[in-house]
Specification:
The chain is mostly beta strands. It has no helices and five strands. It is elongated and about 30 Å long.
Length: 65
C-alpha cells in the first residue's frame, strides 16, 4: 500500500505546473492553500481519491472560490 505520492497541479494564475507531496493515509478530502513555485500566488488545492481506482486527484482553484 502506498502511503504518499507526488501529484502535479496547474497554477490558476500563471498556468505553470507544480508538484506537491501528498499523504495518502488521510482518507477524507484534503483542502488547503499552496503557493505556486513560479509566481508565488496562492492556489486552493482540493485532493480527493477516486473511489473506483483509489487514485489521488488534485484540483486547483483560485483562493476566492
Amino acid at each position: 500500500m502506498t502511503t504518499d505520492d507526488v501529484l502535479t497541479w496547474i497554477c490558476q494564475y500563471c498556468s505553470e505546473e507544480n508538484e506537491l507531496w501528498v499523504d495518502l493515509t488521510i482518507e477524507n478530502k484534503q483542502d488547503f492553500i499552496e503557493d505556486c513555485e513560479t509566481c508565488c500566488r496562492p492556489n486552493r488545492l482540493i485532493i480527493s481519491q477516486q473511489k473506483e481506482e483509489g487514485i489521488p486527484f488534485v484540483e486547483s482553484r483560485l483562493t476566492d472560490e
